Amino acid sequence: MAWIRTVPDGDWEAEGGPLADLYAEVVDATHGRVDHIMVVHSLNPRGLNAHLGLYTSAMAGTATLRKVERELIALVVSLENHCHY
User: Which helix (H) or strand (E) holds 63?
Assistant: First the structure.
């Protein structure tokens, strides 16, 4: 869980505006929730949109790696950087 103030993902659509517009793009369809790494941007929808663009580019940027391989690389980098994500 984030240690910063956030808008609970269940409230995004009620908030209206840019946050509600982004909800459909960041909600995990399988689990029906927004991942914590995206929720931390909820007070800054422009930052959320930028993070989403970066994530989308990184996860779909090459045809030589499968998504699961990209996720594993991200995991190893996070572990090496002592990131709790």
Answer: none
pLDDT tens-digit map of 7-59 = 888 888 876 788 888 998 998 888 888 888 888 899 999 999 999 998 888 77
**Among 81, 22, 10, CA closest to 53:** 22
Q: How far apart are CA 78 and CA 80, in angstroms?
A: 5
pTM of the model: 0.70
Q: What is the 3-state composition of the chain as percent helix, strand, coil, each rounded to the nearest 5?
A: 60, 5, 35
CA distances from 19 to 2, 13, 30 (A): 18, 7, 20
What tens digit of pLDDT does each residue of 34-46 get?
Answer: 888 888 899 999 9
